[in-house]
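Page header: ASSEMBLY MODEL / two components / 869 residues total.
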Amino acid sequence: MEVAVTQNGKRRFAMKLWSFHGGVELPGHKQESTIRPVEPAPLPKRLILPLSQHLGAPAEPVVAVGDKVLKGQIIARPGGFVSAPLHASSSGTVVAIDEHAVPHPSGLSAPCITIETDGRDLWVEREQQTDYRQLEPADIRETIRQAGIVGLGGAGFPAFIKLNPGKTIKTLILNGAECEPYITCDDMLMREQADEILRGLLIIRRAVQAQHCLIAIEDNKPEAAHSLQKALQRIESDADNIEIVMIPARYPAGGEKQLIKVVTGQEVPSGGLPVQIGVVCHNVATAAAVYRAVEHGEPLLSRIVTITGGAVAEPRNLEALIGTPVMELLSACRTNFNVLQEVIMGGPMMGIALANHKVPLIKTGNCLLTVSHGEMEQHPAVQPCIRCGNCADACPVSLLPQQMYWHARAKDFDKIQEYDLFDCIECGCCAYVCPSNIPLVHYYRFAKSEIRSQQEQKRKADIARERHERREQRLAREKAERATRHARKKPGTTDENKRAAIQAAVERAKAGKQGAPSDDV
Amino acid sequence: MFKKALSSPHIHQPPYSTQGMMFRVILALLPAAAAYAWLFGWGVIINILLAVGVALVCEAAMLTLRSRPLLPTITDGSAILTALLLVFALPPLAPWWLTTIGVAFAIIVAKHLYGGLGFNPFNPAMIGYVVLLVSFPRELTLWSLPAQLAEHTLDFRATLNYIFSGTLPTNLTIDALTSATPLDVMKTQLGLGQTTSGIMAAQPVFGFMGGKGWVWINLLLLAGGLWMIYRRIINWHIPVSLLGSLLAISSLFFLLDPEHSPSPLFHLFSGAAILGAFFIATDPVTAATSNTGRLWYGAGIGILIYVIRSWGGFPDGVAFAVLLMNMAAPTIDHYTKPRVFGHGDKDA
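Prediction written out in full:
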């Protein structure tokens, strides 16, 4: 059992840990990029800033082409509640607001603001923040919202929302697990900027009023844990109820729900959020960004990114401005473009293969993983599923991947939802262990998107049907109203009335024949 | 390690490929196959070669007819494994047409007409065997004697001659070369009112735990099976629950009435129980898939083996038991869905 390190440097037996079902042990490949310290990336000539680097609505530009902007200036405001503003990462001139290639699995383009940098890196006037202890939780949240901070672990959920729990928070977890192979940006951040992380943690703790804080680190990162432990000693009295927990390295232990299970034993309900069980979880890099925003007035302008893989001669971590073209980051680490076959943004298990190398680094881009020619299998032939069950054994959510695969193939989308398709976190464990090389996760993504588009179509059809029904009702009502109006004009249809009416008409006709002047005479 | 993928994950490292699994199962069968040949003569080897040849020809023909790529499937080892398993169920002196019909039916009907590897609901080898059992029951009872008991043995030429033309050397009759299997003898004699201890003592086919010779084959099958579990080629759930339930139910009846119920060890080591537990019931395509489901599936087979052996019309029940539980596997899967992360117990 690992030893947990507590605030006073006292060593004691680890707090009780739980485990999640399945998972896989992966070769780490982390040492390659941890030999060299983090360095700032060179200032690029152009910064390409996508308006949507987070979950939720895209940001809306507040600058025009030709505008001069300063570093840290807001260039796009949030497009809704679940959204984040965007800041100029350096000073320069806005040269384009248009579609540009972005890191997306489909290789799609999306609206971006392009800034030509002036090389001076001039800051906008910053509000010097006061001590966070004098700030109200609501002020902290607003500062973080204005700073454009999103979850830096991967999903990119606007961070301020998770600081607004509206519920008593028992446990605040900082996620330093970093369970995917090759990625070391959080590891290096914890080694080099432990104080910033801890200060960020204290700020977040104040914002969510958490009783207990945990920093969870996979046990393959002892240097990071040591560094945080030292930093914990430095903050002394503030360190009460903060614990550094080493968890066994087993992918995907860094998945939010898996991590919460490991350190608290509790399961976040399906389709729910951690806050429902009194837990809030933030990435360590998010905590460091929170510190910079609150104590230095710096919005999220840069992040640490790992540049590694077979085609990179000097794998390392760079502190790079958001919007830096990935090619410049690869060049800065002496990538051999002759052998470069593929660039993956993110890790090998969940990252996206970049269809276009002109894309920029975005807020959630934790790693650029290069794959050289020799590293890639040529054509792994897909063989029939033999129902061996390796996938079910590996699934951290206890799904039955091979059943879901059959139903996805058969496009039986009702059945696949009975197998809880939407609980799938797309971690890739099932496909990793499949002896028949079946791209299982691809099938689930396909099924999910089909179901979503079907639901969307159904929603539209429902609206159309309702509209039609309302129109039918309206027409029927109008018809009925006309009928009543009509009936009121000619009251009654009994024989007596009819006779009276006929009589009246006959008389009118007679009178007309006798008395009416004739036009055509 | 990296693969050119449509989407993540970009790395792929299964413990074994599908082909790798098949050939490891075949490897685990080989020691027992060698013992089988050693004890029962050249017929076993001729049968293996014939069966594998027929299996590959049928597989190739069906793949061509179905316009499927030939090479990746024919080299995946699954047809060879089916042929090999079927040979274990056939008498060593089975005529060539018997082996051919069984293997051809297994590959053509039980496998490819259902859609090929991965799509067949029933274990092809067991379908092939059962087709032979119900169509040619007499031929399947003519089992040659193990080496310890045989007064006459056939050399390679004579065996080949008998298998392909049905003629024996002039001084021999087939009755001198064959006898009923231990399970068959036990069933017949119990039916005649004998007691188990009397049968074991009187009949020469029995050794210390079960049928003479069969014990060795079964011990080697057991070793191969344990190796597969150790190397994680198969899970332990099905073999353990299958043999466990067979042991439990046979012990129960043995304790109640030892004179008319063969011992648990006899049940384990005389027939195809161990072959079935490690090599046949574990065929993932036709088995239940969740671990809980596998336990139920194996236990069901174990119980059915005992029921068929004791009260059914056939001396051994492994094939029927496996096929019956193949039929039940989808239902078992339905009722043993594991509880999904974050779902309450009611969803279990």
